[in-house]
Amino acid sequence: MSQPQRDPTPIQRLSVLPASQRVLERLRSAGTRFHANDNIADYLEDGELEAIEAEVAAKAQEMLRALVIDVDNDHNTRDTGRRLAKMFVRELFAGRYQHAPAITEFPNAERLNELMIVGPLRVRSACSHHLCPIMGRVWVGVLPDADSNLIGLSKYARLIDWIMSRPQIQEEAVSQIANLLEQRLKPDGIAVVMEADHYCMHWRGVKDDESKMINSVMRGRFLADPSLRKEFLSLRHRG
Ligand SMILES: Nc1nc2c(ncn2[C@@H]2O[C@H](COP(=O)(O)OP(=O)(O)OP(=O)(O)O)[C@@H](O)[C@H]2O)c(=O)[nH]1
Which enzyme class, named as a word (predicted)? Predict the structure, then answer.
């Protein structure tokens, strides 16, 4: 006599899904946002990033077929789907899938409370709308107080690269950078200015080669104190 079929357990049901669907289910059941510029590293399990890369490669190859490119016989595009997947998952959008870089935070032993500026730091990203490159520069102003943490200079570049290695819009990128640095440094004030070229304007669309977007976020003392803001903005223009 045949046994009655049991409904699959939630774990059995998840295990037959593609990796991207499994991650999606975890995000949904946790009620976590997963916009293009959000980090989802906490929701990935071992081996799932490799599986997602393989899924993206297959779908990218399908996109090329839909563009009526002979990927089976054209030696130049035969591996393009795989290259695109590797580029998106491992390089350009790695800031979505990898945990934040390890940063050693030092106490502010000398109780420094003078303005410090780091920059220009080179930034690279892709716009969320067309996935075209964004290439720019960032300046960060920090006003520590006695209870702030200090971090190594190179760590500003690492943290900012982690934020920028996701599809972004510049306004949100600047605010995410300010949030992260505020969280890590606990400063009295933080200022971030970004100036960037958007290739969705240079390369396509209006094809305007000259325009740049410049935006800033001022927090804490930089908001409250116009002379501090002025000092930061004028020092930023040096050199
Ligand atoms: N506010 C903002 N806009 C951006 C950014 N990066 C790209 N854009 C713009 O976002 C818009 C994309 O949305 P749509 O206007 O629907 O796109 P489109 O019809 O292809 O626009 P065109 O570029 O004018 O051809 C474009 O105007 C881009 O120039 C950014 O960081 N911030």
Answer: hydrolase
For ligand 1, atom 23, the nearest C-alpha belongs to: 205
Separation of 235 CA from ligand 1 center, angstroms?
31
By percentage, how much of the chain surpasses pLDDT 90?
85
DSSP string, 107-146: E-TT---S-EEEEEEEEEEEETTT--EEEEEEEEEEE--T
Residue with tokens 């050693």: 104
**Pocket lining for ligand 1, CB < 6 angstroms:** 127, 129, 169-171, 198, 200-201, 205-206
Per CATH, is 105-236 categorized as 3.40.50.300?
Answer: no
pLDDT, one tens digit per residue, over 106-135 is: 888 888 889 999 999 999 999 999 999 999
Q: How far is the centre of ligand 1, averaged over its atoms, from the C-alpha of 134 (Å)?
A: 12
The ipTM estimated for the assembled molecules is 0.87
| Residues of each domain in the chain carrying CATH 3.30.1130.10 | 105-236
Instruction: Quote the CA–CA distance of 142 and 145 in Å, as a whole number.
Output: 10
- As assigned by CATH, the class of the 10-97 domain is mainly alpha
Residue given tokens 């293009």 in the structure block = 36
Instruction: Delimit the CATH 1.10.286 region(s) of the chain.
Output: 10-97
Nearest ligand 1 atom to the CA of 200 is 29
